[in-house]
Amino acid sequence: MVSLDDIVQEAIDRQATDIHVEMDAPIYWRQGEAMVRSDSVFTRDILDEVYKRCGCQVVGCKNLSVDAACTCQGLRIRVHLYAVQQKVCGTLRLLYQRQLGLGDSEEDKLLKDLSLKTDGLILITGPTGSGKSYTLASCITYINQEAAKHIVTLEDPVEYMFTNDKSLIHQRELHRDVASMAGGVRDALREDPDIIMIGELRDRETLEAALQAAETGHLVFATMHTQRAITAIQRMISLFPGEQQEEVRNQLAQVLRAIICQHLTRIDAEFVTIRDILLNTTAVSNLIRQKKEPQILSVQETQKPMQTMEMAVHELESKWGRRQELREVLHTSYGTV
Length: 337
What we know:
Helix content: 25-40%
Strand order of the largest sheet: 9-8-10-11-7-12-13
Distance between the termini: 52 Å
CATH topology of the largest domain: Rossmann fold
Structural class: alpha/beta
């Protein structure tokens, strides 16, 4: 009988990033851009094992939607279960930790420098599946190795598990440890943190709390779904009503440290991260205040280590040659500024 361990091990062997399941139907693997069908079938016994490992109560499939995480074969797995025509389906994302951390590339050196800031807001953005959580976890791992800090994370669900090294890390999960992300940030301010990590900025209340935390001398990491770095600025401002937007612009101009927007593509069986890098220099800060975000592109193009997505793609093209995968990244991110 096939078990959850068997399924996950096969996914690891295949270097799959996701496992797609449907009750009493064949299992599929996400391998690069392809969906590959396996000979194994997802059964009720495997579903019960998923529930047990995630600590979830078994419920009927009607209107089912469950977000959780578990550990299997030494790997953290993000689990999303949902209903399709009264059948339980799910996507299990494998969170590979074997190389969790920051390397010696110029971009990783920049992330190291940002991770040792003492205050402000650092955003890691990008579309779904672009490795935002991995980059964020790598930054936390680096801090844990290098600095004696108190780090509070707010996640939905907890994905990468950290072990205290030089830092003290408390990982809090939405709906288990905190009722809301915004409430969790406000709680964290009473917990003597140096660093607050927010799994995702999804709403105005959470963003307000994050800006307040950054204003009061804390370093705040967060993720957001955007295709470009500049789009993240526009998205944050648009979450507020018109009468508050000038105040928010001034807040962002003051507390924002960096926005790293990344896309993930696969070339010759290797995953390649492509980054749009925006640092909040004096020039960028003034443009945010003056409502001139489109002009930030020219600053990115001329002030290293900043770069636009086009610059990052063109640099990779010189290394890999012109590839359809790289042009797809630009096609995806066009039209968002």
